[in-house]
Each structure stands twice: as structure tokens, then as C-alpha cells.
Amino acid sequence: MKILKPKISKEIIRQVPVSKLDSIIAENNYNIIDVRDQKGIEKQGSIPGAINIPFDTIERAIDKNHDDFNPIFKNDGPYLFCCTGGVMSYMAAIKAQERGIKNVCNLDGGHSAWLKLTTTATI
């Protein structure tokens, strides 16, 4: 019996601090990919300009030969992946990087950290 080992990315995904997100949104120089499902977005809202590609569809969205290919992946990025807490988006960023997508990073702490930062800043 052959034991399959999971593929592990040897690359490190750069973490973008939530404190930089407002300037990233204003400058509009990143493709922001939100990998949460629709429930998560309805519950927490979304980052302005973010494109929703749920985590369970990310591999198909990246695959140029798949019917679900998302043309956002035709350009050179940079891509900022985000989710609720930063874990699923990190895994999505690894998947993207392993499939040849360049200039990939992850929102450190995710959407929750950004909400906390913006809520704290307005109090």
C-alpha cells in the first residue's frame, strides 16, 4: 500500500498586517480575494473591493482549464487572500502559490482583526 504524503508548500506566504488594509483598499493595488462562504460575508460584511471566491472553489477558480476559472487570476497580482481569522485564506494562498500564482499574500488575523481595528479606531 502506497502512503500519500500531503503536498507542503516550501514557500512562505507573506503576512500583511490589518493596519495596512485601509491604505491597500484606498490605493486599489491588490486583488483582494475573500475565501469565506456567503454566510460569513452576510454575518460580518466584506472588505470593499474584495472578490468572493469561497475556499472550497479556489482550486477550480485558479485552474485555467476549468469551467470555473476566474479571470482575476490572469493578471500578475498582487493577491491578498482573506477570511474570518486568516487560517483558511493562508491555506488558499498556499494552494494558489503551488499552482503558479505569483505575488500572493495573506491578511494577518483576517477580516475579524480588521473589524476589530476599525471598530477600535472609531470609538
TrEMBL record:
PROSITE patterns: RHODANESE_3. This is Rhodanese-like domain-containing protein. Residues 26-119 form the Rhodanese domain. It comes from Gilvirhabdus luticola. It comes from the Bacteria.
